[in-house]
Amino acid sequence: MLRRVLLALIALALASVQAHAQLLPGRAPGFRPGFQFIGGAGGFPASGAVLDYDFKGDRYSGPAISVSRASPAYIDDSAGNWTLVAANALRRSDKGALIEGAQTNSVRNNSMQGAVAGSPGTLPNLWVASLGSAALSRQVVGVGTLNGVDYIDLRVFGTASNSGAWLPLNLQFESAGAVAAATGQLWTISAFVQLVAGSLPSNVQLELEELTSSNANVRYNAKLITPDNTFRRYEFNSTLSGGSTTAGVRPGIWIYGPTTANVPIDFTIRVGWPQLEQWSSAITTVGGASSPIRTTGTAATRAADAVSASLTGFSVPLTVAGVIRSAPFALAGAAVPARIGTSSTASYRTLLNAAGGSVVGGETGSAGVDLGAQPSAGTRFAFAFAGDAAGQSGSLNGGAVVGIATGLTAGHTFLGIGGNGDGSAQTYGYIERLALWPYRAANDNVRTYGTLSNWGG
User: Fold this and answer.
1) May I ask which residue range the UniProt record assigns to the signal sequence (predicted)?
2) Quick one: which of 24, 168, 220, 296 is 20 to 30 A from 88 by CA?
């Protein structure tokens, strides 16, 4: 009988050690009270969390996620493939969940509608191409799809007597007068470009021409790019500065010729999904290319993402933490990885707010916790924020925990993910993981939750 009791006690002890090992893979016993490891093999769902959304790994624990977006939209994966996602469906890949605001592509035909292979062949509808010399020839080699992106291959060849600065190929993605614009506006032109054959004679530039109301040139804005044998996306951000006469813009790509006369030219350039989008200064003052918007004959708008979840029986205290890949460009306004409160944006409870150059957690109408400078555009970072009626604390990327004595108000029924949850304040980046606990973690654990390496991946 005594032997059976001893064996039972040993089994219980072993089970306890195994349970601790599952919470702390690769770590020795003796962890601090309340600590739950959050990453590594088998680290899902996070121990003790009331919800854990692993968007990158496509694993979900907790309330159902609600997605509202009035249009289809594209998302890319880590291999560079673009996939169309239906309206009102979450855009996710092995990079996480992509959550953006509404943007419009003013290039009316970026999917090569109407293009026909031949010599010279037929350009896509609404496109214009001019050669810098009558001695040059143009050929539409073909159209196709690569990594989900529509493209056209254009060949230019011949020997011209031109010298100095000249353009063997001036390719415009729109006709003059098609896109209204005004001085002071911020526009981003982007396109997938690849050199598929031959060699480029000189520089290649993305170009945005400012035009008057009668389509006369006001000024040219351009950026040098260096296409190679990889099909990749290039972008150019331009704040129009032509003055009061600027009434429109026209996007394109310039390929410069050799400065010496009578040099043979032969190259084939691949161009895919050109995009022209205007930015509000409330979102960004520097610009950037948002996810591609496919068009087939008219300008098209990608609707805003609104992603949320309902919280039942949840209140203060709380801890929220996760991993984000920030927007690929600097944001000017609030970008909210997580908002916990009610469905009304006027009732922020806890908020990680990447605005004004710093990341802040807190509550509307009261002091917040400044976690430090927001990470650079396009970088991965981890965050953690904890609070109760007595105070708040937080950590960004494993940095020192910052705390204040101002407490949080009770009452939480709504979680906004990657934005306010109502189609505003989107991160324009990828939410990799987001977890929520029903207690305020101790400061050393807040720092652990806010350390990127502890999440794995």
Assistant:
1) 1-21
2) 296
Is the bond into 264 cis (omega within 30 degrees of 0)? Answer: no
The pTM score is: 0.89
Burial class (CB in 10 A: 0-12, 13-18, 19+), 332: middle
Number of CB atoms found within 10 A of residue 366's CB: 13
H-helix or E-strand spanning residue 14: helix 2-23
Looking at residue 15, its pLDDT comes to 41
Number of helices and strands (H, E) in the chain? 2, 31
Taking the C-alpha atoms of residue 99 and residue 96, their distance in angstroms, rounded to an integer, is: 10
Same domain, yes or no, for 148 and 252?
yes
Q: Which domain holds residue 93?
A: 39-102+304-455
Report the 10 Å Cβ neighbour count for 327.
21
Three-class DSSP category at 355: strand
CA contacts within 13 A on the Cβ side of 275:
28
The amino acid at 92: R
* 183 and 124 inside one domain: yes
| Look-up of token digits 């996810």 | 291
Residues 90 and 122 in one domain: no
Counted residue by residue, the chain has a size of 457
Q: Which of 156, 165, 155, 164 is nearest to 134 (CA)?
A: 156
Residues 188 and 207 in one domain: yes
Place of tokens 């919800």: 51
In whole angstroms, what is the distance from residue 429 CA to residue 223 CA?
Answer: 25
Contact 338, 328 (CB under 8 A): no
Residue pLDDT, tens place only, 32-49 = 333 344 544 457 899 899
Q: What is the CATH number for 56?
A: 2.60.120.200
Q: Are 352 and 446 in contact (CB under 8 A)?
A: no
**Is residue 191 included in any domain, yes or no?**
yes
**3-class DSSP state for residue 444?**
helix
Other beta carbons within 10 Å of 88 = 15
Q: How many domains does the chain have?
A: 2
- pLDDT band for position 29 (cuts 50, 70, 90): very low
**Are residues 349 and 273 part of one domain?**
no
pLDDT top residue among 369 and 91? 91
The percent helix, strand, coil of the chain (3-state, each to 5) is 5, 45, 50
